[in-house]
Write a structure and sequence with these properties.
The protein is mainly beta. It has helices spanning 64-69, 128-132, 166-171, 189-197; strands at 8-18, 21-27, 39-42, 45-53, 57-62, 80-85, 104-114, 117-123, 142-145, 148-156, 159-164, 182-187. The chain is globular.
């Protein structure tokens, strides 16, 4: 369980294909605090730590199913990846409930600077079946983009915008998102449960 509050935009130190899987080596300021089998969200994808190295790097493996649903397969050495360790249950929930289970990817198709913030617009493929299951955004609702908990604005079928403050831009990989960049989306789990309870 995560909150969508990114702890660090870390450097990918290596990305090696292993049959259909991808083994990522990540350089992080908290690598020495991790342990084998611990869960860490990478661009919003929950992955298990499988190795830790003395050079402030650790390794995780993304399987084919994860690569098909996320942008992790596009990561290469030198890229930035948003990291968040799992929640501490007696702490504050500063973002929203995030599972680390990416639903789909979206493409950034517009960026605007407005009064000190930067607005990013994203488009994603959506079917009527997905909408019935709660895989969508709603105005002023929550969405996770590359693991960042954000508030939705200008929501419409298959598109939405988010406003990014300078702090978030500086401390996450939003600083490298441009028009055409593919990002990971996790829609609000509460919306999915509500949709599942409604008569179809």
């Amino acid at each position: 369980m995560f909150s969508g509050i990114v702890e660090e935009a870390a450097i990918v130190a290596g990305a090696v294909r292993d049959n259909g899987n991808l083994r990522l080596r990540v350089r992080s300021s908290f690598a020495s605090e991790l342990r084998i089998d611990q869960s860490v969200a990478h661009n919003g994808v929950c992955l298990t730590v499988v190795d830790i190295h003395p050079d402030s790097t650790y390794e995780v493996v993304a399987i084919r199913e994860t690569l098909d649903r996320s942008n992790l397969g596009d990561l290469a050495e030198g890229d930035l990846v948003n990291l968040e360790r799992s929640m501490v249950m007696n702490g504050r929930l500063d973002g929203h409930i995030v599972q680390g289970h990416v639903d789909t990817t979206a493409m950034c198709d517009d960026i605007q600077d407005v009064d000190g913030s930067r607005y990013f617009r994203f488009r994603y493929d959506v079917s009527e079946e997905m909408r019935r299951r709660g895989y969508m955004t709603v105005e002023k609702g929550s969405v996770t983009v590359n693991g960042v908990s954000l508030t939705v604005c200008d929501s419409a079928p298959g598109t939405f915008r988010v406003a990014i403050i300078p702090y978030t831009l500086e401390h996450t990989n939003f600083c490298r998102i441009a028009v055409g960049t593919l990002v990971n989306l996790e829609f609000d789990i509460l919306g999915k449960y509500i949709a599942a309870l409604l008569p179809q």
